[in-house]
Amino acid sequence: MFVKTRWPRRSLALLFFLSLGFATLSGFSLPGAETTVRVGYVSTPSVNGQLLVAQEKGYFQEEGLRLEGRDFTSDIPLMRAFAGGNLDVAIMGAMLASLPAQGFGRVFLVNSREIDNCLLLARPETGAEKLEDLQGTMVVSVRGTSAHLFLHHALKAHGLDSERDIDLVSLDMAAAVEAFLAGSVSYIATWYPHDLRIREKVPGVRTLARAGDYPQAGVLTAWVASDAYYASNPDTLKGIIRAWIRANQDLLVSPQENRDLVGRIGYPDLPELAAGEGWSRIKLHSTREWLDFYADGSVDAWLDQTREFLAYGAGWPQDTELIMDRQLFWETGKAALAKVEGQGEHDQE
């Protein structure tokens, strides 16, 4: 039996206001480094995987950098802190495509591709079995994020409109999950690893859709610098890129070892992450592959795909190009490849 449940918005309002601006200090400051960089991110492997590897292995420290990390519950409070000058750089997903409309921020490093990171879940008592069952129901998510992008494309593929055919309630993701767990709302579009916590707390929860079935729902994650920080600290940003390149390569060459490291440091309560659950939902690329994607226009196409959705589903205008510096990664990545190739030739002598 399929049961449609509609709940008054007032029952979710308190959770929304409590969630505004919520963030925690992640506590990975490196002692003895020279330059402090305040970085914000949302905890999911597609966003902070390379960051955690580089931090743990001392790659930032070797570049003379001391990173102060702040872990946010979603891109909305992260963007608020970034706009308010409380962060120097941020790592974000779909929200980075809104930077032109908001008039600040410069993308300087693409991080990963999310290909199956989001899911649409239903509480077991709904009896829902397919996406068409959502018509006229309340769904909780975070407007303007990768979860919202996924929800939009999933519904569209089944003849539904995410603005007209459902009642979309936008909360911070931590509050959205709590509302779902409490039964205040019966449907949630969320991202990994929140679904693991939901499955643990709500036996029998149903997966109605996942992003991997909708290629248009894929998004890039990227590092963004504030305008002022970008203008004044190009060498620091190059240092971040060099450290990132090493950590990214580690994840590609020795995946299990470094996934275990990320799970142990960033997600100690989720052993499934180290086992590979989350990594199957994202795509990492080598430095050479990213350079090719920059050159052939793939990066721009992926970003434009997200930006077009934000113009429709989140109300962001799309009459300006994404503010992105391609040269920093191009130069630093080329230099890193040349160094590796030079070392290889030397080893063969």
Can you walk me through this structure?
- The protein has 349 residues and is α/β, with parallel strands linked by helices.
- The protein folds into two domains: 10-18 and 116-217, 3-Layer(aba) Sandwich (D-Maltodextrin-Binding Protein, domain 2), CATH 3.40.190.10; 23-114 and 219-348, D-Maltodextrin-Binding Protein, domain 2 (3-Layer(aba) Sandwich).
- Helices cover 46% and strands 18% of the residues.
- The chain is built from 15 helices and twelve strands.
- The chain has helices at residues 10-19, 45-56, 59-62, 75-83, 99-102, 146-157, 173-182, 194-201, 227-232, 234-253, 255-266, 271-274, 287-296, 298-314, 327-348, and strands at residues 23-25, 35-42, 65-72, 89-92, 106-114, 118-122, 138-141, 167-170, 187-191, 206-210, 219-225, 282-283.
- The strands form two sheets. It has a seven-stranded mixed beta sheet, sandwiched between helices. Strands 8-7-9-6-10 form a five-stranded mixed beta sheet, with helices on both faces.
- Strand 7 (138-141), helix 6 and strand 8 form a beta-alpha-beta unit.
- Helix 1 runs antiparallel to helix 7, helix 2 crosses helix 10 (234-253) and helix 2 (45-56) packs across helix 11.
